[in-house]
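Shipment paperwork, digital attachment
Item: protein structure file
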Amino acid sequence: MQSRMTLKAVLFDFNGVIINDEPIHRQLIDDIMIAENLRPQPGEYRRVCLGKSDRAALSQLLAGRGRMVTDNYLNQLMFRKAQAYQVQVAAMAELPIYGGVVEAIAKLQAANLKLAIVSGALRGEIEIILNRAGLAEYFATIVAGDDITTSKPEPDGYLLAVERLNQLYPQLHLQPSECLAIEDTLAGIAAAKRAGIPVAGVTHTYPFHVLHRQANWTVDYFADLELEWLERFYAG
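Attachment content:
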């Protein structure tokens, strides 16, 4: 007899899922390339960077121009970008948080689900947004780009989030199959599925028909993510 599963945790990507800041990141990446005397190419950010950590994105962009840099130099570029990001965010009168995400997060927590962030963004970038938006208290743990050496579509970030939640809540006995990942990019969806985690795709970055081919579920808006239906699915 097959044992029943339950949905126990929801793991959120950050950029493109909680906050609409991809235009900021694209501009900051372009600024770095120009400072390196390299010309940004049309469509390159979307093709190379979406869903990836800054380390992976910058490495691939530079390598594509025949530029191999040391880890130390790469760290300097990432630090410069992170500083510029925080300056831009601080200057915003209102953060571009996606509509419905705050309500969805509160609803999931009210259902006693554990929440975590799994992102390639740097911890400082994530925390400044969560704190200012009043969302930090909802998330039990954050797996950021600082915590792992790989990037999505590798599954390491998601696996680390499951491990950390089990450390925080030993009684949870959390398995990847008892989690739900919320992603907006193909790299992110692939990372979660490689970790054995079902995925809901939100159409913030790619159109419905593209995500629908990759994710377990696809929604246009957070309000369309029906918790009761998901719980019935996990219960089999």
